[in-house]
Design goal:
Elements lengths: L3 E4 L6 H4 L4 E3 L15 E5 L5 E7 L4 E8 L6 H17 L10 E6 L8 E6 L2 E6 L8 H11 L6 E4 L2 E4 L2 E4 L2 E2 L7 E6 L2 E6 L13 H7 L7 E5 L5 H8 L4 E6 L2 H13 L5 E5 L2 H4 L9 E4 L11 H18 L4 E7 L6 H15 L3 E8 L17 E7 L1
Parallel strand pairs: 1-3, 8-9, 15-16, 15-18, 16-17, 18-19
Antiparallel strand pairs: 2-5, 3-4, 4-5, 6-7, 7-8, 9-12, 10-11, 13-14, 19-21, 20-21
Helix pairs in contact: 2-3, 8-9
């Protein structure tokens, strides 16, 4: 076993000693510039000691570390590490028979696979590669997933966007045997349709499962507004809890169609859907909502966009705080990794000051436990949320 060697600049091994799984391009000595995206490499320090094995990328994050030290990346490697991922989900009681059959199996760096996501929807696993190297190991990944699932996972769907010569190319499809692209799943007893081919991300936002369940405690006999609703996850939970009425708003007609389909799948009727830009729509809503959910897409995917994102979060939170009924509840979120919890809470505080209302924090929310965060990679904590009570 011999992979291409890349050398670190003197003194740049410190992050590896802290077990951080990223090596940035500025830490590398010259000589790697012509390597293909996804090349397996060994990383060698200034003392000729092999520090890590990983995938190379001609980007800011130049190396994603698969193993600290030297190892062979093969079927045994994927099978062993995926066994650990399955064991953790068993500890978390996932899947849970007749209650929840959709969950995250691999959460990138949190499960020791930087740049790899695997989500399970009933009998289908969806693989999303955020670094090109994994695309060359899809057969090994499929075998490791199916063998470790004790026959529960039968199909593997590859859903990834990779860049080639500056042009975005899509390589989607089943690896081997084909299953259905639209799948009916159950989450905490609620039913949803998930389309693994056309849905956002891998098809559904699994990271909000616990937060959707929390919403049920505040929704009985309440009028609820679910903004950025996508396929209606929070809407279905609120209706299941006995909400008097739920309105779902999203800018995408496709998302609203799926939301309506999911509401009907669960047999609910007291629901209205609306295609609209939430940022504009929330300025026009009445003051008779008891509960408002603000779950926008990432306003800042990079640090350079953080200031603009903070302005966006402040605007929508201020409008919601102004409009909600006295004693109302707001579930507000940020999934922007560049906006940490302290900054997000400060932004919501600024929104409350602008709205001129008193606000109490009832809960601090996170991504659920099948989206673990490596203690060596705090960047993996991306979802943060607040349940606030507006007086």
């Amino acid at each position: 076993m011999s992979y291409t060697k890349i050398y670190l600049k003197p003194g740049k091994e410190k992050s590896l000693e802290r077990q951080h799984p990223w090596v940035f391009s500025g830490a590398l000595a010259p000589g790697h510039e012509k390597l293909a995206d996804g090349t397996l490499v060994t990383l060698v320090d200034n003392y000729k000691q092999t520090r890590a094995t990983g995938f190379y990328s001609p980007s800011s994050i130049a190396i994603r570390v698969l193993h600290f030290g030297e190892t062979k990346i093969d079927q045994e490697f994927f099978s062993h590490k995926l066994k650990d991922a399955f064991e953790l989900r068993k500890t978390l009681h996932l899947p849970e028979k007749n209650k929840t059959n959709c969950y995250r199996l691999v959460h990138g760096e949190g499960d020791g696979f930087p740049g790899l996501i695997i989500d399970v929807y009933n009998h289908t696993a969806v693989v999303q590669c955020h670094t090109a190297g994994y695309s060359g190991f899809l057969t090994e990944i499929k075998h490791a997933v199916t063998e470790n699932s004790a026959g529960e996972i039968k199909f593997v769907f590859h859903k990834s966007k990779e860049s080639s010569k500056g042009e975005e190319q899509t390589s989607d499809g089943f690896v081997g045997e084909k299953g259905d692209e639209e799948i009916e799943v159950v989450e905490n007893g609620n039913k949803f349709y998930v389309n693994v081919a056309t849905g956002q991300k891998t098809g559904f936002f699994l990271d909000q499962r616990d937060n959707r369940e929390l919403l049920k405690h505040f929704s009985k006999q309440k009028k609820v507004l679910n903004t950025f609703s996508y396929s209606g996850g929070f809407s279905v939970y609120a209706l299941a809890a006995g909400a008097s009425h739920v309105t779902s708003v999203d800018i995408s007609q496709k998302a609203i169609d799926l939301c309506d389909k999911n509401v009907a799948l669960n047999g609910f009727k007291n629901h209205t859907s609306l295609v609209a830009d939430v940022v504009d729509h929330i300025k026009e809503v009445g003051n008779d909502y008891d509960v408002i959910i603000l779950d926008p897409p990432a306003f800042a995917k990079h640090l350079s966009a953080r200031h603009k994102a903070v302005i966006g979060y402040k605007r929508i939170n201020s409008e919601a705080i102004k409009k909600i009924k006295p004693g109302g509840i707001i579930f507000t979120f940020s999934c922007s990794q560049a906006v940490d919890r302290e900054l997000f809470e400060s932004t919501v505080c600024a929104a409350a000051i602008e709205a001129g209302r008193n606000v109490q924090i009832l809960h601090r929310m996170n991504q659920c436990a099948d989206h673990p965060v490596s203690i060596f990679h705090p960047e993996g904590h991306y979802l943060k949320g607040l349940v606030i009570h507006v007086l």
